[in-house]
Amino acid sequence: MAQKRDYYEVLGVSKGAGEDEIKKAYRKLARQYHPDVNKAADAEEKFKEVKEAYDVLGDDQKRAMYDQYGHVDPNQGMGGGGFSGDFGGFGDIFDMFFGGGGRTRDPNAPQRGSDLQYTMQIEFKEAVFGKETDITIPRTEQCDTCFGTGAKPGTKPDTCSACHGSGQQEVVQNTAFGRMVNRRTCTVCQGKGKIIREKCGTCHGSGTVKKQRVIHVRIPAGVDDGAQLRMSGEGESGLRGGPNGDLYIVIRVKPHEFFERDGDDIYCEVPLTFAQAALGDEIEIPTLTEKVKLKIPAGTQTGTFFRLRGKGVPRLRGHGQGDQHVKVVIVTPTKLNDEQKELLRQFAASGGEHTNGGHEESFFDRMKRAFRGD
Ligand SMILES: [Zn+2]
Ligand SMILES: [Zn+2]
Questions:
Q1: How many Å lie between the centroid of ligand 1 and the Cα of residue 105?
Q2: How far is the CA of 171 from the centre of ligand 1 (A)?
Q3: What homologous superfamily is domain 1-71 in, according to CATH?
Q4: Would you say 268 is a known binding-site residue?
Q5: Rounded distance, CA 104 to CA 90, Å?
Q6: What are the phi and psi torsion angles at 283 (to 5°)?
Q7: Residue ranges per domain, the chain?
């Protein structure tokens, strides 16, 4: 296969030819080589060549790219690249890749700022009762000197001539499946669509500056670990008049040495002596706000929960508070003196523990049955 001819040469126009001149040349050649009217052996091939040249030179963007890069693959090594005889095919493939490309971002359009995330550690009680605090967030803002253009005040950025301001370039490749057109970020302007000749002294041409921003945060009472607070418009600033992003504050609650939390309820464990549990007592329980008295009835078993109504966490949305649940754990004494040991022996004997009758034995009988499985 011959080397691909220059598109201008194909149409017989100069490199500086205007739109009209190109169109006129194309029409003339298309009529001349159209396979319906021209029965020469090479007419179809010529017609294709003309059509292809016009598809590129007749389109501002494609022409600019062609001017800069020429044919991407000048050898057309695939022998036409599996290109079918359908004359509309070439244009269709182009349209497929050029048209309606929703993913492509216009570099001149307003752009929303990015969202930011900030993780904030707070104390257990701060989560319960809420907190107000100031945080410092580094964020990107539009440069006030150049209003985001990046150009020195009094100057204007030039539209990039390689991409005509679109920020995108198209790369044509011949593949086994035909001609493929890929978009890529313009390498001349790095996708900005503009070339800044004289840069703004404040932002050095970026149009944005990093600023430390102090933001007042009000953490609502009842917030839980992992909660996210959204602060609308406190993210990165938008560009070219686009809206700011949002700031998401992720709450991390430090564990408490005594309390645990499950939703709006608070859990804690208090130790009881065997005597307290057996005889009953009144004990003091710390809550989130104060100490309250809790009556332990005689004969309380280890692991029993008592509920302190309304002593939990304020409900985040709505009224009222959760409860505090107190689990009592009976602590077996480990350091008994001789007198205590003797008293316990007497206690056991008076309850009949060492005999084979009564309550204790039936408990062991039940256990044996359970292990036998009947
Ligand atoms: Zn460009
Ligand atoms: Zn600036």
A1: 13
A2: 13
A3: DnaJ domain (1.10.287.110)
A4: no
A5: 22
A6: -120, 165
A7: 1-71, 116-157+196-253, 259-330, 338-372
